[in-house]
Predict the structure of BED-type domain-containing protein.
Amino acid sequence: MEAHAMGSHGIVGSSDGTEERENSSINMFSEGVNLNLIQPSLEEDVSTEILLANKKLRSTVWKEFELTMLDDGTYKAICKHCKKDFVAGNRAGTSHLKYHIGVCSKLQSKRRKFGSPKLDIPIFDQQRSRDDFSRMVLAHGYSFNMSEHYYTRIFLYNLQPSFKLVHRTTLKDDCMRIYEEEKLKVYQLFEKQSCRFSLTSDMWTHTEMSGYMSLT
């Protein structure tokens, strides 16, 4: 009975020691788990801050904003011009910040004040463009049908949608009108000369059977 009791006490004693060691191990393990749970969150906060810092350096949008961290660990982007604040962070992106730059009245006012003056928009003149087209046809010997070519119309429409090409017969009339105007200018130039001069003409034909006259 004593042996059994001693054995029982031994077992009980051994059991108590085991429970203490197990409890100690459990406490240590739980503390270890708590530390492991805390550590990644710290690393996550640091990595988030680093990513935001890198993004600030890379994106030009941050030239117009100040990045501020709030007490709860979140970030705000504050406009340097109108002082409005916006959500900032890796998941927020910068599209809303870029949009604000385009509509910020104070920023646009500064750009108009200190920016370069706007270039004057050229005024379209239908008659002048029509005469220029006719002179091009005359100078290069193009066909009057050029005004009706499909890609000629597309090309000129993309350059100036307001320009209206004329029919080939109208283009021919424009070329003849310009020819008469230029011939009159030559006559008037000769009349203004106070000296005598002689002119020599030479006729020749191009390989495409186009006739030309050279005047010296």
Notes: The beta strands are 65-69, 75-79, 85-88, 201-205, 211-215. Residues 1-15, 22-51, 53-57 have pLDDT under 50 and may be disordered. Helices lie at 2-58, 95-103, 105-114, 126-140, 150-159, 168-191. Residues 126-215 form one domain.
